[in-house]
Amino acid sequence: MKPARSSSAPDPSLTAACLPAQRESRMTLQNRVDPFGSIVATPERGTLMGNRGGCFHDVHQELTRSRWKGRGWIACVLEFRGRRRAVMQPNRYTELFFLDEATALAAGHRPCAQCRWADFSRFKAAWLAGNPGYGLTSHDSIDEIDIHLHRERVDRRRRKVSFRATIDGLPEGSMIALDGSPGTAYLVWRGSLFRWSFEGYDRSARVPNVSEVAVLTPRSIVAAIGAGYTPAIHASLAARLPGGVLA
Fold first, then answer.
1. Cα Rg for the chain, rounded, in angstroms?
2. Is residue 244 part of a domain?
3. What pairing do the DSSP bridges indicate for beta strands 201-205 and 192-196?
4. pTM for the whole thing?
5. Is residue 246 part of a domain?
6. CB–CB of 87/16 below 8 Å?
């Protein structure tokens, strides 16, 4: 497996994203995404920005009932070519923020093809390699992959989709939830589980003696990680590891 890419939180005064955003107003906006795909209001910003295909906030910078506008859920860098924009402007796409890439992937987002071309290319190649059963090739548009991803994100009642699997069958970088604490997400890493929060990763937990767990990362993305795509992990994880390194 390739060495993990570390993702550290930027100075909050820095600007954001694929069309990067200016620092938002003092009001804490509902634009932070957890591994379950939920969007909440919290002051921590994270290390990636993204969107879900369009605008689903109103003129008061509050979310509407919808939680996406299209199938193209992407994760972007926080800075790109010096572009700046104020977040949640009328009729502009709704900016979202993630702790790290493992979080974004668990929520069903993939790398942006504009500001993260190298990651996008690696992700697409790994997704195709890990999911041969879909019959797609490198000549197919990313839109075809997004169709499959969207089915794995939410069901017809707009609820988060998960699937059951054994922990030892999951690649590092996958996110799971345990039956005893269904509202808590854990990162699978080096044979241990690390509790996720908006601030970073907490202490490790021993892998429980259970047959299966609920996997939050969409099935085909898990397959892409297993095929070689290494998600960037928040730097807080390094402090929990021997030697303080992710590699």
1. 17
2. no
3. antiparallel
4. 0.86
5. no
6. yes
